[in-house]
Amino acid sequence: MGALDFISDYFSISTRRKKRKAMQTVDIKVKMDCDGCERRVKNAVSNLKGVKSVNVNRKQSRVTVSGYVDPNRVLNKVKSTGKRAEFWPYVPYNLVAYPYVAQAYDKRAPPGFVKNVVQALPSPNAPDEKLTTLFSDENPNACSIM
């Protein structure tokens, strides 16, 4: 039985494998001024293990990395190039209920994007909300007011 126990232990250990990380896309905001900055960031990120593609958009200051990577490792690798980096804080403005509230609107955001912040809905009894719904197309009494 000693030989069989050894063989069974050998096969049970070898069948354990590491779980592979899930395929994901990481967006990072990095300020890049020139071709050298762009090339430095792209080379640093593309050398990471598990990276499938790197897309650098200098106009938007955005780096998109796809692959089997850890988002924090990608962020740290970009920071190691000497650039200030953060995760992409913007979402398209049409996905936000009130895109131009003070917390969401950002002048430095690329066109068509606003910050991804939690937004409070206005109370239905607020005076400005009453006025906007008074002349709304969804108000059945709007014609009688006009």
Automatic annotation (TrEMBL):
GO terms for molecular function: metal ion binding. It holds the Pfam family HMA. Gene3D superfamilies: 3.30.70.100. Keywords: Cadmium, Lipoprotein, Membrane, Metal-binding, Methylation, Prenylation. One of its GO terms (cellular component) is membrane. Residues 23-86 form the HMA domain. One of its GO terms (biological process) is response to stress. InterPro entries: HMA_dom, HMA_dom_sf. CDD domains: HMA (cd00371). SUPFAM superfamilies: HMA, heavy metal-associated domain. Its main location: membrane. It is found in: Membrane. Belongs to the HIPP family. PANTHER family: COPPER TRANSPORT PROTEIN ATOX1-RELATED (PTHR22814), HEAVY METAL-ASSOCIATED ISOPRENYLATED PLANT PROTEIN 20 (PTHR22814:SF356). This is Heavy metal-associated isoprenylated plant protein 26. It comes from Morella rubra (Chinese bayberry).
